[in-house]
Amino acid sequence: MQTRALETLVRILQVQSFSEAAQLQNMTLSALSMQMKALEAELDAELFDRSFRPPRLTPLGRQVAEQAKGVITGVADLHDLANAGAGLSGSFQLGFIQSASARILPKFVTLAAEREKRASFRYSSNLSEALTEQVSLGQLDAAIVTRVEGGARGLHVELIASEPMALAVPVALAELDAVQLSQQVPFIHFRPSTGIGKLIAASLGAGVPPQNTLVLDSIEACMECVKEGVGYTVLPLPDIRRYTDTRVHVVEGALQGLTRDLVMLTRDDAQAGRWRPRLLSLVRAAS
């Protein structure tokens, strides 16, 4: 029996979808269907109810999939024993929030190619909430997101960096105090539904509320508006520094110690625990 078929069965249990499981396993839908039929024949058991479209796991199928997790873990343990110290191996699905994909991902790709030659990586970018859910469902092995209170229940969280939030103001308005600034130009708010956006909203609640707000879904767009004198914004300091120029006045330490924690999320299980430290080291080195 090939563990690859068991891995596919577990993936179907996780995502409850043949088509999504096929995509995550880098298979065609027809290949996945044939693989599952072969597994049923080998076990002489009906794992799927094909009266539904797409097929659904039978109670026995769910039980076999749960048992298969232990088999897969045991095989992985044997590989770890045989390849101790050899580094990461296999295919990893990683997710990055927008700001991390711009600042961390390019260097990560370079370092991974140099240090982890036995591993391959596929990347995606999304909002913190969506990436967190994908890790929970097993669609991603790890995700780099903004820490949100209560947003990663049941997952393992590792801190990558704690970044101070700072104020970016058009240089022509640098002499204005907070009240004057809020009255004269709009506050440029990066997407309030995101992890960063929620931190920004918290900073507004603790300070002088703006009279007008302009909501944008791109950090770069927020900074371009500041450069053009459209308004002012609050963002993590590394993101401000990435896009700033002489037209921007940066006020550090103006937000009473407010920080954005950039974290790596993984599932909190033994299998992830084997490769997590090495992957975390690689992400931190790229940060």
UniProtKB/TrEMBL annotation:
This is DNA-binding transcriptional LysR family regulator. One of its GO terms (molecular function) is DNA binding. The keyword Transcription regulation applies. It holds the Pfam family LysR_substrate. One of its GO terms (cellular component) is cytosol. It comes from Litoreibacter halocynthiae. Residues 1-58 form the HTH lysR-type domain. Gene3D superfamilies: Periplasmic binding protein-like II (3.40.190.10), Winged helix-like DNA-binding domain superfamily/Winged helix DNA-binding domain (1.10.10.10). Keywords: DNA-binding, Transcription, Transcription regulation. Belongs to the LysR transcriptional regulatory family.
